Amino acid sequence: MSASSDTKRDFVSSELGTKEYWDQAYDREIKSFNDVGDVGEIWFGEDSQERVLDWLEDYGGVVTEDPVIDLGCGNGVMLLEMAKRGYSNLTGVDYSEGAVQLARSIADKEEVACIDYQVADLIADDCTRKYTCLTRQYKLVIDKGTYDAISLIPGDDIKTRQAYLKTVRQILSSDGVFVITSCNWTKEQLLHFWETDFKLFKTIPTPSFQFGGKKGSTVTSLVFTHKS
Q1: 147-184 confidence digits (pLDDT tens)
Q2: Cβ 52 vs Cβ 202: under 8 Å
Q3: Would the CA dihedral through 156, 161, 166, 171 be positive or negative?
Q4: Taking a C-beta distance cutoff of 8 angstroms, is the pair 217, 209 a contact?
């Protein structure tokens, strides 16, 4: 895939694309959780999370027993909410050991035992053979901000994004759905990148705004399936 204007990022790399930033952030959140029970931030807000989960229930193509993976799960709150809605085959992965430690602690406190949290680098060479949780396939693959973070990695962001796309392609089952939520990329940019290997299945409605006669959204949520 060539690096056209639609695949090049129109924002600069930042510390949010580094493992060091997230390790430090989760060290702080672990301390806050241990001190006062604060679970930390819900990425993109609770409303964004609820929109995805409500769509899943309306869609009906993913049943509660189907394998689900949250890529870049952070504190694991998304999967905790899914567990409360009856989903029972849940996996969360993050490359920050602190995130996984926090997610496990929160799940233990909530007495939720159906989530398997694992440390995994989603863009590492041979990651789908290196990490046990990435050697299987999933009916539902969730990305809520992880593609955004990967896009902020300093250096050759196209190479890292293509490595991530390859991982998603390999772990998504032939009849599965990939749900991605982004605040850095427009719908058109997401389509241009992901439709090299996937096809758009659904656009999940998100709040929109109008400025200067143009309509836009601060968050985009799309659902993809395999092309074949």
Answers
A1: 999 999 887 779 999 999 999 999 999 999 999 999 98
A2: no
A3: positive
A4: yes
Binned at pLDDT 50, 70 and 90, residue 210 comes out as very low
Torsion, Cα 52 145 193 223, to 10 degrees, reads: -10
| C-beta of residue 129 within 8 angstroms of C-beta of residue 135 | yes
Question: 131-157 pLDDT, tens per residue?
Answer: 999 999 999 999 999 999 999 988 777
188 contact partners, CB below 8 Å, separation of at least 6: 6
Q: Which residue segments constitute the domains of the chain, with CATH numbers given?
A: 15-226 (3.40.50.150)
Among candidates 4, 11, 13, 6, which has minimal Cα distance to 160? 13
Q: With beta carbons less than 8 A apart as the criterion, state whether 141 and 168 touch.
A: yes
On the question of pLDDT at 82 being above 70, the answer is: yes
Beta bridge partners of 141: 69, 178
* Per-residue exposure over 104-134, b if at least 16 CB sit within 10 Å of its own CB, e if not: bbbbeeeebeebbbbebbbbeeebbeebebb
> Of all residues in the chain, what percent carry a pLDDT higher than 70?
83
Distance between CA atoms of residues 60 and 50, nearest Å:
15
Answer yes or no: are the C-beta atoms of 11 and 184 closer than 8 Å: yes
Helical segments of 91-228, H only: 97-109, 127-130, 146-151, 157-171, 187-194
DSSP letter at 18?
S
Residue keyed to tokens 């143009």: 214
Task: Return the pLDDT at 211.
Answer: 43
